[in-house]
Design brief:
heterodimer, A: 169 residues, mainly alpha, 90% helix, B: 246 residues, two-stranded antiparallel sheet, two-stranded antiparallel ribbon, 6 helices, 4 strands
Chain lengths: 169, 246
């Protein structure tokens, strides 16, 4: 087995092992590994940065959203208040107008009633006149006696009083 | 060389061949095929991890992913087995893993050489780990580190028995660490070569060993990774022992 037979090469093998391993060690230690570590660190810090920034942006977005929601709620409340106010004004107005209308209608009704009453009185008056004239004319034709106006009126009035209120004829 | 008598034997692949003779006085430090693969392994690791990290992109590309995954793989291993104190040992543990892994993997290429299949190499690495860990233990705990050889709660009566057992177990660490890697690599590569030899010898029936060689190659790749992992994780566990004692 050459491994155990070539004893004269042992020193050279150990020497080259030590040299090569030494070179590898120093290069890894001083150059390669720090570079890899730096790359890994950079990536980690970049990731952390990005996460941090994302958190910041999210916070900002939340603030904006909150503001928006608040504004929305305010606008909503304002709108509601305006509607309520308008409604109240309108109903008050309509109530007022209703009252005015009712009043004016009542006035008109009263006036119309007064007119009617006056008209009725006048009509009754003229009916009485006609009745008196008719009574005196009938008396003159039937009996041939001329009745004076005062008597005839009295007679008519008493007759009308007998029949009641006398507004039936 | 010993191979000339048995050409293309299954063990021929382990022969050290000097490529450039280097002599320091009477000391032979020749640049060999083993040294060449070591330099290839080191060059490959450095190239791969350095080129991968050339443009430290936020979203890593393929090579950068490999570099970052290797980094995190070893970093996690160290954190789980040693704890946060292990950060200091990260460069050496990472280099150790990469050195052994690439040594094993380059050996999987045809006509290449597996420097981890040489006991002296694995033993040198294991001894270095052992020495470093022992020094670490003494620096950390002083003479108190000797209490490592007495598991807590051992009855006084058992001490004469436990202390030698613990010392032997402690001293056998570098041997088991070295032999495990060396034996796995040597056995795997020998087995591959033996089956590969059957392919030509059996003619048409050589399809069977050929299929086996393909399957074994897959297995060997797995073992190449696994042994690098085991070598590294055991080192981590030894560091943990030196820092925390049991």
């Amino acid at each position: 087995m050459p491994q155990l037979e070539q004893i004269d090469t042992y020193l050279s093998q150990v020497f080259w092992t030590a040299l090569c391993f030494g070179i590898l060690w120093i290069v890894m230690w001083k150059v390669t590994l720090p570079r890899i570590a730096m790359a890994l660190e950079q990536r980690q810090s970049r990731l952390d940065d990005d996460l941090e920034r994302a958190a910041l942006i999210k916070e900002e977005a939340d603030t904006v959203r909150e503001g928006y929601e608040k504004a929305l709620a305010e606008a909503h409340a304002e709108g509601q208040a305006a509607i309520r106010k308008q409604t109240a004004e309108l109903s008050e107005d309509s109530a007022r107008r209703h009252a005015e209308l009712t009043e004016s209608l009542a006035k008109k009704i009263k006036k119309a009633e007064a007119n009617i009453a006056a008209e009725k009185t006048r009509a009754m008056e003229s009916v009485r006149e006609v009745a008196v004239e008719a009574a005196s004319a009938a008396t003159e034709r039937l009996v041939g006696v001329s009745v004076d106006a005062e008597r005839a009126r009295r007679a008519v009035e008493s007759a009308m009083g007998k029949t009641g209120s006398g507004d039936g004829d | 060389m010993a191979t000339e008598s048995q050409p293309h034997g299954p063990l021929e692949q382990f022969i050290i061949q000097p490529l450039v003779d280097v002599k320091l006085g009477s000391v032979d430090l020749s640049f060999t095929n083993s040294a060449l693969t070591m330099i290839m392994a080191v060059g490959l690791v450095i190239a791969m991890l350095t080129i991968g990290m050339r443009r430290r992109a936020l979203v890593p590309g393929r090579w950068q992913s490999i570099a970052e995954l290797s980094y995190e793989f070893i970093a996690n291993m160290l954190r789980e087995n040693v704890g946060s104190e292990g950060r200091r040992f990260f460069p050496v543990i990472f280099s150790l893993f990469m050195f052994v892994l690439f040594g094993n993997m380059i050996g999987m290429l045809p006509y290449s050489f597996t420097f981890t299949s040489h006991l002296i190499v694995t033993f040198a690495l294991a001894l270095a780990v052992f020495a470093a860990v022992t020094i670490l233990g003494f620096v950390r705990h002083g003479m108190h580190f000797f209490s490592f050889f007495v598991p807590p709660g051992t009855p006084l009566l058992m001490w004469p028995l436990m202390i030698p057992i613990e010392i032997i177990s402690y001293l056998s660490r570098p041997i088991s660490l070295a032999v495990r890697l060396f034996a796995n690599m040597t056995a795997g590569h020998t087995l591959l070569k033996v089956f590969a030899g059957f392919i030509a010898a059996l003619g048409v029936l050589g399809v069977v060993p050929f299929a086996l060689v393909i399957a074994l190659t897959g297995l060997e790749v797995l073992i190449a990774f696994l042994q690098a992992y085991i070598f590294t994780i055991l080192t981590c566990i030894y560091i943990h022992d030196a820092l925390h004692m049991h």
